[in-house]
């Protein structure tokens, strides 16, 4: 394990959205199937639209109602904004010490819902209804869902940034399957979009999306919050995939450096851990 780190990540560990437009040309001819909701609705949103305060039950009820709408801007906007909030709640439930089987199932279902909502899959209403039944039976409907408006998180959802990040990952990995780990909470929504764009361009059906909470300022996390069982599972998933840690905002680079250091030493020793972000500039 390295004990000293420079003030900036090495260039080979950076995958920057900014300045990566040259990679778009290489992917523009690929037949695209993923229709990102942000392509349609981002220009009609504001940071205040991220505001959310309720429960898992109320959020799922709202999402189920919205999923019955026709393919409209209102439908796309609400699915894109609020399906990630359920993932946030599931992660917090796990981190808060509920290391039980229902915490794992809860998080996996929330991730499945988030990906399905962004892809607007057929059967989405039925998936949400099943999730509602599960959360009610397991007593999880009352768990809080809370999100404050955040300008940086909203700015990172810009579809142009997500497209550039996904395209740069395609160039870096040449279509190899990835284990994509967005840092929660801020990286979830933009991370879903980047991940699905990457999978769409590469036609990868076996890449894995798994958010991990590492919120140094808002939640005072000192390290990424990973359970022993998750550690084993992540190591298994990484055996045939490139590992990418994503944060929506590179900013000073401290969070990504800390996360990279932790994953490198504690979870994936001996592996090269790549990083990606939507806002920020790496070394040229």
What does this structure look like?
By secondary structure, the protein is an alpha/beta fold. The chain folds into 2 domains: 11-34 and 151-279, Rossmann fold; 52-147, no CATH class. The chain contains 11 helices and 7 strands. It has helices at 22-27, 37-41, 56-67, 73-95, 101-119, 124-137, 151-156, 159-173, 188-202, 228-238, 254-267; strands at 52-55, 144-147, 178-184, 208-209, 212-213, 242-249, 274-279. The strands form 2 sheets. Strands 3, 4, 5, 6 and 7 form a 5-stranded parallel beta sheet that branches. It has a two-stranded antiparallel sheet with strand order 1-2. Helix 8 (159-173) packs across helix 9 (188-202). The chain is globular. Mean pLDDT is 88; it is low at 1-28.
CATH topology of the largest domain: Rossmann fold
- Separation of termini? 26 Å
State the helical fraction.
40-55%
Tally of distinct domains: 2
Major beta-sheet overview: 5 strands, parallel
**Shape call:** globular
Kindly state the mean pLDDT as a whole number? 88
Structural class by SSE content: alpha/beta
Quick one: how many beta strands? Answer: 7
Strand percent estimate: 5-15%
Catalogue the unreliable spans. 1-28
> What's the quaternary structure here?
single chain
The succession of helices and strands, N to C, reads: HHEHHHHEHHEHEEHEHE
Using the CA coordinates, give the radius of gyration. 18 Å
CATH class of the largest domain: Alpha Beta
Number of helices: 11
Architecture of the largest domain, CATH level 2? 3-Layer(aba) Sandwich
